[in-house]
């Protein structure tokens, strides 16, 4: 056992205080006058007094309490750390882009070679990753078991996420030294924008590269049209290819034909009459590319229109709601909307039955909004409704007080911005931006704003996007039931050029879908985003809670085999130096704190001793 602060052990000298007090503080008998002292024989008087057992016990308790207090301040610890041994972590890419013929076999070979090359004394661990990482084998000295673990990894339909693999490997290494060998095809989409992966500073990261496929055919989109069905088939190769494209309904072939697919995206249209309540799939036959992206599913079930209440100054007589109304009409193909535009003063007079049918409310003006109208809006949000506020010049934040309940409020400063401003999403992983797609979310940064409001953030309001001056342009409120968004500008083109941009209609549609939790927004999900109770495989699935059907499809970005260089890959790896607060350096302090926990026991024992001392002292009194 050692001590973190051994100087405090000198405090043990304080035990002399109760000992001295015990020896000095003796009771003396009273002096009694005696007249016949001269007749008493003179002899030395020996006065002895044997301490009573309780006094000795009291002394012992006091000394023990002081010793325990000194021990607690000295912070005793026992170093229970296991002697560090280097680790080699082999991370095998099992994503969709590793599903072409021969790729996984090559990955197994490279992974086994990495195990064999692990230096003597290294333990070996195996991690498999796609959009998530899983530990296949914990660190072990058994090289045969490690090779078997490598060979057990098989390709899935998931996307590539290098950050997940390196994070899992870092957790296994726990700040120890060693190597991380990533076996992958180096697909460039494995890194999202701005992604960096932290690894222990003593770990070396290597890449074992599996050759990517020279070309791949994939069905990346499918949608029902007025005259049938249209699909997008992508050819990532450098030359045109003839391929069989098949339309099936409930696994029965409805139409098929050979199509010449030029490099890039190719539109394919089917003119067959489609049934209403069923599921369809479009498949391209591709024996040389990835197997998991050859088919894409879609539901043909018609969706009931979602009712959206647009509150605008002047109602339909004004122009504030024109662009929003057109944007929601443009989204009617895959998620129809029924829009009603009303003026603020009429909100309080809406029939309760109409409120029950409303999925979302979009506020573009507040002139004439009465307290009864605010109460109706507050009840709507409290019941789980969705609310969007566009902070244009016709919206006063004071008129919306209490709409979000007692714990959150719509707070912005109208007309606070000056000059031209642009904005970009701050959280691209948010479901709303994920639904927009990477290209559409990036295009939002091209929108130009002239001034605008300054939305205030807070404990229950976080920014999803910011202007280039740092102020929030899109804020989401953390509510117990409903959902609410604040957009720090107008949606009618008065203070920006947003309605004239191609991303305006998708943005408005996705805002409404998100706050209203519309079923249409969840009719199709990527494999990485499957809800609980649904298998992470492509196809038609049923949600266990509602019984509603959805389709699960692969991430179309995973169909692009374009590789990156090893240098570019390693450039995203962040070897954190010691002392910078990196997660891998936290293990030492956590372990040291665990080793020093004995001072708590010393304090607890001291308190117990003091309780006993008080009881003995009281009994002696």
Report on this structure.
By secondary structure, the protein is an alpha/beta fold. The protein has 14 helices and 31 strands. Residues 577-588 have low confidence and may be disordered.
Which features characterize this protein?
single chain, 621 residues, alpha/beta, eight-stranded mixed beta sheet, five-stranded mixed beta sheet, 14 helices, 31 strands, 26% strand, flat
Count of β-strands: 31
Helix content: 10-25%
Poorly predicted sequence stretches spanning 5 or more consecutive residues: 577-588
Mean pLDDT equals: 84
Structural class: alpha/beta
Rg to the nearest angstrom? 37 Å
CA distance, first residue to last residue: 40 Å
The number of helical runs is: 14
> How would a textbook summarize the main sheet?
8 strands, mixed
Strand content: 25-35%
Strand order of the largest sheet: 17-16-18-19-27-26-25-22
* Structural shape: flat
């Amino acid at each position: 056992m050692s001590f973190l602060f051994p100087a405090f052990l000198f405090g043990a000298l304080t035990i002399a205080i109760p000992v001295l007090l015990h020896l000095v503080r003796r009771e003396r008998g009273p002096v009694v006058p005696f007249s016949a002292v001269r007749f008493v024989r003179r002899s030395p008087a020996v006065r002895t007094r044997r301490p009573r057992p309780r006094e000795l016990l009291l002394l012992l308790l006091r000394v023990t309490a002081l010793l325990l207090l000194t021990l607690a301040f000295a912070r005793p610890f026992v170093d229970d750390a296991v002697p560090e041994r280097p680790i080699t972590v082999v991370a095998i890419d099992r994503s969709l882009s590793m599903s072409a013929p021969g790729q996984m076999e090559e990955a197994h070979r490279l992974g086994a070679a990495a195990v064999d090359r692990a230096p003597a004394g290294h333990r070996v661990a195996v991690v498999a990753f796609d959009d998530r990482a899983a530990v296949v084998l914990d660190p072990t000295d058994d090289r045969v078991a490690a090779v078997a673990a490598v060979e057990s990894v098989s390709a899935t339909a998931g996307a590539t996420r290098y950050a997940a693999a390196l994070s899992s490997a870092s957790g296994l290494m726990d700040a120890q030294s060693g190597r991380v060998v990533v076996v992958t095809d180096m697909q460039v989409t494995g890194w999202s924008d701005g992604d960096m992966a932290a690894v222990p500073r003593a770990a070396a990261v290597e890449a074992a590269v599996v050759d990517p496929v020279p070309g791949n055919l994939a069905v990346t989109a499918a949608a029902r049209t007025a005259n049938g069905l249209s699909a997008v088939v992508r050819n990532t190769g450098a030359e045109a290819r003839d391929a069989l494209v098949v339309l099936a309904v409930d696994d029965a072939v409805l139409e098929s034909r050979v199509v010449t697919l030029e490099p890039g995206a190719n539109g394919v249209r089917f003119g067959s009459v489609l049934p209403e309540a069923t599921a369809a799939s479009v498949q391209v036959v591709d024996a040389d590319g990835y197997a998991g992206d050859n088919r894409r599913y879609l539901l043909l079930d018609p969706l009931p229109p979602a009712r959206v209440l647009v509150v605008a100054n002047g109602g339909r007589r004004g122009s504030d709601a024109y662009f929003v109304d057109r944007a929601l009409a443009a989204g009617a193909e895959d998620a129809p909307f029924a829009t009603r535009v009303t003026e603020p003063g009429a909100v309080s007079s809406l029939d309760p039955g109409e409120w029950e049918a409303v999925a979302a409310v979009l506020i573009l003006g507040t002139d004439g909004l009465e307290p009864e109208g605010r109460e109706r809006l507050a009840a709507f949000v409290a019941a789980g409704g969705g609310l969007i506020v566009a902070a244009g010049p016709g919206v006063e934040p004071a008129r919306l007080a209490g709409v979000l309940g007692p714990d959150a409020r719509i707070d912005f400063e109208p007309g606070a911005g000056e000059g031209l401003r642009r904005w970009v999403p701050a959280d691209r992983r948010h479901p709303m931006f994920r639904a927009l797609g990477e290209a559409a979310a990036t295009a939002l940064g091209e929108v130009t704003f002239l001034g605008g409001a300054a939305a205030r953030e807070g404990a229950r309001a976080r920014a999803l996007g910011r202007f280039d001056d740092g102020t929030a342009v899109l804020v989401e409120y953390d509510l117990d039931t409903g959902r609410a968004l604040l957009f720090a500008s107008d949606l009618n083109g008065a203070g920006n050029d947003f309605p004239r941009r191609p991303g305006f209609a998708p943005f408005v549609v996705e805002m409404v879908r998100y706050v209203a939790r519309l079923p249409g927004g969840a009719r199709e999900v990527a494999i990485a985003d499957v809800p609980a109770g649904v298998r992470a495989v492509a196809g038609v699935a049923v949600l266990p809670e509602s019984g509603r059907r959805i389709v699960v499809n692969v991430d179309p970005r995973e169909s692009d085999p374009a590789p990156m260089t090893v240098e570019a890959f390693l450039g995203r790896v962040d070897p954190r130096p010691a002392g910078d607060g990196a997660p891998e350096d936290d293990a030492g302090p956590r372990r040291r704190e665990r080793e020093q926990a004995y001072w708590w026991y010393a304090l607890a024992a001291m308190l117990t001793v003091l309780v006993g001392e008080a009881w003995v002292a009281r009994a002696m009194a």
